[in-house]
Amino acid sequence: MSSAVQIDSVFKRFSNNESWVLEDLNLEVKQGEFISLVGASGCGKSTLLNLIAGLDKSSQGRIEVSSQPTLMFQESALLPWLSAGKNVELPILFKGANKADREARAKELLASVNLESSYNKRPHELSGGMKQRVAIARALAQDSNILLMDEPFAALDAITRDLLHEEIIRIWQENNLTVIFVTHNVREAVRLGQRVLLMSSRPGRFVKEWHVDIQEPRRIDSPEIAIMAREITDDLRSEIRRHADA
Amino acid sequence: MHNSDFRSLESGLDALDTRHTEGKKHLGTLVLKALSPLIAVVGLIVIWQLSIKIFSIESYILPTPLDVAHAIEQQWRLGNLQEAVFRSFLRGIEGFLLAIVIATPVGIILGLNKYARTVFGPILLGLQQLPSVAWVPAAIIWFGLSPATIYAVILLGSVPSIANGLISGIDQIPPIYLKLATVLRANRWQKIRHIVLPAAWTGYLAGLEQGWAFAWRSLMAAELIAISPALGLGIGQLLDVGRQLGDMSLVIASIFMIMLIGVLVEKVFFSPIRNRTLRKRGLL
Questions:
Q1: What interface predicted TM-score (ipTM) does this complex get?
Q2: Ranges in chain A, pLDDT < 50
Q3: Does A163 sit within 8 Å of B9, measured CB to CB?
Q4: N or C: which end of chain A has fewer CB within 10 A?
């Protein structure tokens, strides 16, 4: 299988007299793979996503992507002056599609996240989970094969988050996407990812990798996930402990 | 989980989580809200009348409310009032629209370009600090007693407020919207048209409201000073006629008209736009 994202010896710092935020990152993400990235605060997870998304440039090294990625944030970042439907239409509008095509596509995408009746709703009328589903529909509207997610479910309640886990897995499978999912929630990382990568903090480095061979449908409360999450958490804790003396 | 089970669970959660927006307000509440300010106005008129009685104030110093009403009626019958209100209002609107046309690109450029802001920002701020009446003598020297003088004073009063409102609106855009524009691959024009301007709209609207108030004030100052048959009769000129004739009723009547038009524009035009914007964005 060909690679969707190829990261070669990437270093990043924000100014020359600062120490590295990201140090010597190497990673190959295959087409159609679902990768979870976990790490404590300050490990540069978001910085890395910004680099992959092309929002920022690496200081050294190369990042190659097979197609232009799209990025989802912790906040839904829906524009409050537009209806849910018009928010989904935005990337299609930017590509220059006509009104009828935009509307048809937005309705189709909203239906795919079970929100077909919310086309005319304003963001403030939607719950946190619904907003994130609209944001997913908007990301899909970009027709990108690579979806980068920066702790997108961190602000949601547990029931809603479980549902969105199922939703994102279904969307990943149906659309044959490549997903890089950043989280500080280790169970979530194991619930979703085919591979879980642990990052160290200051500087951010990949320190360990796990393959998750648990069949879908997975459940976040299943024993296999708990066992694996525990192992990863232990490693994460020892990474954090290293900073106690520093 | 079975797919239809999942869908119904999701729909159930959505139904529980969705906030219900309030229905239309009761008609009685709206009428009460519209009439409430009148109570204060009536109260003020009563105090006015009583003070004249109690302190036996001469009518050339302060006329009674009835004298003022009479002056308004008389000017109406002469046709002066309609003419003055119409001309002033039209000038005010024309000047204001022209100010919008000039201030908007200035605000966008200075809002988006940090270097342009560093260079021109202080000048704009200085212009905003300056009472536009200070420009009247200069404008008369440059343009004579012509409509150009009046428009120049309106623009100098109004443009800085509108531009500064738009600039602060742009400054207050949450950074995530600008990041979103990049993520969604908006080009520069699309970013301005679909992200920056709508996001800055509330600040821009505040600037427009202030810009109108300044335009209206500047117009009155200009009309009061620049008096010539070539300029015709505006409310400011009407006020000056009252002063020259020592007709205090006409003076008060003119002041009243200036205030009334200012309040009406705010209530009939700006206030509904502002409320609609805030309601649509869930801020009200």
A1: 0.90
A2: none
A3: yes
A4: C
Both tokens assigned to B207: 């600037």
Residue B22 has pLDDT above 70, yes or no: no
Chain A touched by B2 (CB under 8 Å): no
Q: How many CB atoms lie under 10 A from the CB of residue A66? A: 15
Let me know if B280 is exposed, middle or buried by CB neighbors in 10 A (0-12, 13-18, 19+): middle
Question: Look-up: residue for tokens 């309705």?
Answer: A107
Half-sphere exposure in the Cβ direction for A19 (13 Å, CA): 7
All domains in chain A, ordered by first residue: 14-19+32-69+145-246 (3.40.50.300), 77-143 (no CATH)
pLDDT digits (tens, 9 = 90+) for A65-119: 999 999 999 999 999 999 999 999 999 999 999 999 999 999 999 999 999 999 9
| Closest Cβ–Cβ partner in B6, B194, B280 for A166 | B6
pLDDT in tens, B101-122: 999 999 999 999 999 999 999 9
Closest-approach residue (CA) in chain B for A124: B282
Q: Where are the alpha helices (H) located in chain B, listed in sequence order?
A: 3-17, 27-54, 65-78, 80-112, 114-129, 135-143, 147-171, 175-183, 188-191, 197-225, 235-245, 248-265, 271-280
B195/A contact by beta carbon, under 8 A: yes
Token representation of residue A157: 């309640």
Please indicate, yes or no, whether the overall pTM of this predicted structure exceeds 0.90: no
**B19, B201, B277 member nearest A125 (Cβ):** B19
Inter-chain touch A79–B10, beta carbons under 8 Å: no
